Amino acid sequence: FGPNCSIGSEIEDGEFDWQTNNMEIEAGIFVMRHLETYMGMGIDELNCCLAGNTRKLKEQLLFLRKKYSAKIILSECNILKETVLHNASKFGNKPTNVPSMGI
Questions:
Q1: CA 29, CA 34: separation in Å to the nearest integer?
Q2: What is the radius of gyration, based on Cα positions, of the chain?
Q3: 4, part of any domain
Q4: Residue 50 to residues 23, 55, 83, 85: CA-CA distances in angstroms?
Q5: Cα 20 from Cα 92, distance rounded (Å)
Q6: pLDDT grade, residue 75 (50/70/90)?
Q7: Is 57 part of a structural domain of the chain?
Q8: Distance of CA 87 to the CA centre of its chain
Q9: pLDDT reported for residue 39
Q10: Residue 3 domain-assigned?
Q11: Residues 17-30: b if buried by 16+ CB within 10 A, e if exposed
């Protein structure tokens, strides 16, 4: 196997309503959403329900980031789950002076 090897699959490149060139930091969220919604259909039928509108898309990405983070942190496979939950519980009882980051 090498970098130019594919195992009997044809790679398709498609156009999507939500495509953007200025959200590289969100690439992982886009990939995870595609993995979550892909059902074996062709690229023309792929619908991951992401908005084309930038404001709505940002809201969706924020929600998905929280969803995926929670699933990873709370997974039984996470060997640091209890440590993370213990450390997070310390923050729940303290008032914070951090301003809201409304999107």
A1: 9
A2: 18
A3: no
A4: 14, 11, 34, 31
A5: 36
A6: very high
A7: yes
A8: 24
A9: 77
A10: no
A11: ebeeeeeeebeebb
- Residue with tokens 């939500």, as numbered in its chain: 18
With a cut of 50, say whether residue 96 has pLDDT above it: yes
Pair of tokens at residue 77:
């496979």
Per the prediction, the chain carries an average pLDDT of 76
Q: What range does the domain containing 30 cover?
A: 24-91
Q: Which of 15-19, 57-61, 65-69, 71-75 has the lowest mean pLDDT?
A: 15-19
pLDDT in tens, 16-56: 655 666 667 777 888 788 788 877 777 666 777 778 777 88
What value, to the nearest 5°, has the Cα angle with vertex 53 and ends 51 and 54?
105
Query: Is 29 a domain residue?
Result: yes
Neighbours of 64 (CB within 10 A): 19
* Residue matched to tokens 């969803």: 67
pLDDT at residue 1 above 50? no
Give the count of domains, the chain: 1
Tokens 């942190």, residue?
73
